[in-house]
Design a protein that fits this description.
Strand content: 35-45%
Number of helices: 0
Number of strands: 6
Radius of gyration: 14 Å
Largest sheet: 3 strands, antiparallel
Low-confidence stretches: none
Shape: elongated
Distance between the termini: 27 Å
Length: about 80
């Protein structure tokens, strides 16, 4: 899904995500984390608020993230999904 290119201070952008696996492996676990240079807040659709660079378990293949801007500056966030292999 396309993601908004610009948001204003206090505005929230929805990011729709689907984890696409190349195979199904016993014991595979996934985590998600993010990095940002400016101030903002990233949370999941269940209300979990992420702290930058902390890993969080990812227990679903389809989920939504919500990013709320806390700065007037242009912002970029990097989101990483990693497996345990």
């Amino acid at each position: 899904m396309p993601v908004q290119k610009r948001i204003s201070v206090g505005e929230t952008a929805e990011i729709r995500c689907t984890l696409v696996r190349e195979g199904r492996y016993d014991g595979a676990r996934y985590t998600i984390r993010y990095f940002q240079r400016r101030r903002g807040e990233l949370r999941t659709d269940d209300g979990t608020v992420f702290l930058p660079n902390d890993r969080y378990p990812l227990d679903r293949e389809v989920f939504r993230l919500y990013y709320t801007s806390r700065s007037d500056d242009q912002q970029t966030i990097d989101v990483y999904v990693e497996d345990n292999t």
